Amino acid sequence: MSISFNDAVINEYRANGGKISGPLADSDLLLLTTTGARSKKQHTVALGYVHHEGLLLIVGSYLGAPRHPDWYHNLLAHPEVRVELGDAEFDAIAVPAEGDRRDQLFAAVVRAAPGYGDYQANTARELPVVVLERWETPAAARRTITTLADKILEIHAWLRAQLSQVRAETEAYFAAREQHPDPAFVPSLGMQIRQHCLAFCGTLEFHHTSEDAHIFPVMAGYHPHLREAFDRLGTEHLDIARIKEDLVALLRDITSADPHRFRDELDGMARRLLAHLDYEESVLVPLLADVPFPPVHPQSDTRD
């Protein structure tokens, strides 16, 4: 069975550390893996990119087609993406630029790769410029991961840091709003806040779902005397999930989202989640300190 041009490029890219042959041999390409907006399946595409002042930029040109490419709709729904750049691979948060910043970045893109200017001239839609922000564990939380306790603490540190960043960006939004000369002007929350908050919500959901499905049932079986504690953790997951869903619903359309309600929901998330993480660490970390990570699977016995 024949494979698509995109799949052929991806296969060659991965087989040769980011190098490909043919008409795209001299192109700056990366592989972007997004999560389907509806299907939630993984999709990988080969895209051109531009480096500008330390930023990694991609453009939703779709060769000047009248609609945005599917991968762009995917990252709006699920900002957490996987980037393969040469022989490097890393997670990132995809943040579309807005307003004057978008125009400035697009001008930089066109200077580096003039073809994007032609694509823009061929369509009435504004080509989105997306910044791929490398998703890294906060420096203060970096550790050598040898146990499941280490991994839990690393994830918790990222959640705390990301929540703190979204809250700081939200307060900066309100500060800027108060300084606007027209008191009636109410700007939308913005894509930076939206994408960071959705990435935080997505990671939080995955973490809690994994705990509910795997860690809590196993640990409760080994430590029946802590059943009440695990029941409490599960109940707190449900409470936090309700707040998460409210945040996600608000951010579906940032142009109409009530900023004050968003800040209130975010404050409620912070109160409940930070207390939950502290309690969970007091219960789980001592139990998981001797559990290897990644898991060690015993070798099967092949003797007769």
UniProtKB/TrEMBL annotation:
GO terms for molecular function: coenzyme F420 binding; oxidoreductase activity. Coiled coil: none annotated. It comes from the Bacteria. Residues 149-288 form the Hemerythrin-like domain. One of its GO terms (cellular component) is plasma membrane. It catalyses: oxidized coenzyme F420-(gamma-L-Glu)(n) + a quinol + H(+) = reduced coenzyme F420-(gamma-L-Glu)(n) + a quinone. Belongs to the F420H(2)-dependent quinone reductase family. This is Deazaflavin-dependent oxidoreductase, nitroreductase family. It comes from Actinoalloteichus hymeniacidonis.
